[in-house]
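We treat protein structure as text, and this decision shapes the records that our systems exchange. Such a record has a labelled line for the sequence and another for the backbone structure tokens. The record that follows is passed on verbatim for readers who wish to inspect the format:
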Amino acid sequence: MKLIPCWITTSASPFCSWRLTPTQHRITMKEVASAAGPETRPLAPAAHTPMIDSHVHLNHPRLETDLEAVLSRASSAGIEMMLVPGYDLPSSRQAVALAERYPQILAAVGVHPHDAATLDEKALAELRELAARPRVVAIGEIGLDFHRDLSPRQVQTEAFALQIRLAREARLPIIIHQREADRPSRELFQGESAGELGGVWHCFSGDEELADFALAEGFCIGIAGPVTFQNARGLAALAARLPAESLLIETDAPYLSPHPHRGQRNEPARLPLIAESLAALRGGPVDATVRATTANFRRLFLQSRAT
């Protein structure tokens, strides 16, 4: 089964995550079990303070197959809330359905740049309807990905702009994915005055210049599993210096499982490993990092929506 990379990054970063194409969303139970490892093994220690996974694809086939068990392990690990973003129209519908079924799940709706060619007028109209649902707290994940060019660049640019405008119409923040499109992303961002909306540069692995741009625009920075990798020195140094009020933590599951589970299927129960690594880099207690990221999430995503 061929996978395609789709993680927010810049050309300076070697890291990427993997997402199935729309025609490759089927996966066997055997493959899931192999990727996930033994279900009885503890995934991560729970933090003292409940935490929020700000970006997790519970709407992905690799997590759908044993969703109840995934949610149970998340609860045992201290995960009190999870935000599930869409990456195309079907996954956006599913994100909303999950959020309306489970009280600990919130949804975002949007079309990923890989699938930008699917964002026609009909799809945009349905996204608009979905965005009005009470459990939807953001538009995303959206952006530009010039690494694989799975949708033409001009189409990606148009889809990104349309969805920024949708977010403004819906009065929602945005969740940005960007890869090898640093300058075009910034230019479009500024041209659309996206800083007014608020949001997060999710699963960040960019350089200091991109981080400073995001911070200057009032955006948060999402820190995910690669912050635990031994060869992620640049990301570690950046995470150590970012202001606490700009940080979010996320798993981006089923991708990017943190050390020592790298290469396995990821899930929300491993978020404490990311929080612990981030806290160690910043030289403070885990609870302080968790309290800060939780407060940031609530300020960004919940101030205009009821949970």
